[in-house]
Amino acid sequence: MQIAKSYGAEVTGVDGPDKLALLRSIGADHVIDYTQEDFTENGRRYDVILDIVAHRSIFKSKRSLAQGGIYVLAGGSWTALWQTVLLGPLISRIGRGRVALLAAGPSREVLTHLAELLEAGTIAPVIDRCYPLEEAAAAIRRLGENQARGKIIITP
Question: Which of 27, 50, 80, 125 is the most buried (most CB within 10 A)?
């Protein structure tokens, strides 16, 4: 979200009610509480949908793409992953947008650019909590229970 904003994008964040303030704080122009509204049914069209959870079908998400838009799966269930891998090329040929899977690691150029954005203060990591190594199980539990409001850090 912060990177998209650094390029001047208008960004809509979708999450549960307890994370909407966080989305606003890191730059979301619009927020949607998925417990109250399904963004795929609100009639809006998006140039890019970056799905890092993939709880809904890519068919539904693709309906919300603007002409020439792209749906990118960056995380989620095995079902969503396989649906994207197996059906993505076919789905991309039908309708108004493309489907892609984000699976490549960042290049040196990308990492250098991210470092520049961090150093300039354009983006900042969102850290939920730091845990000592002895409490790694609690940190993993927090992640598994979807309680984290940012990244979890485990320190030696």
Answer: 80
* SS3 (DSSP) at 94: coil
Q: What is the arrangement of strands in the sheet containing 65-73, beginning at the earlier edge strand?
A: 46-51, 65-73, 98-101
Strand partners, 32: 14
Identify the H or E element spanning 84.
helix 78-93
Long-range contacts of 117-125 (CB under 8 A, 24+ apart): 117/2, 117/3, 117/6, 122/2, 122/6, 123/2, 123/3, 123/6, 124/2, 124/26, 125/150, 125/151
Go through 23-57 and write b for each residue having 16 or more CB atoms within 10 A of its CB, e for each that does not.
beeebbeebbeeeeeebbeeeeebeebebeebeee
pTM summary value: 0.80
In which residue are the tokens 């994370």 written?
19
CA distances from 46 to 67, 95, 104, 135, 139 (A): 9, 14, 23, 41, 34
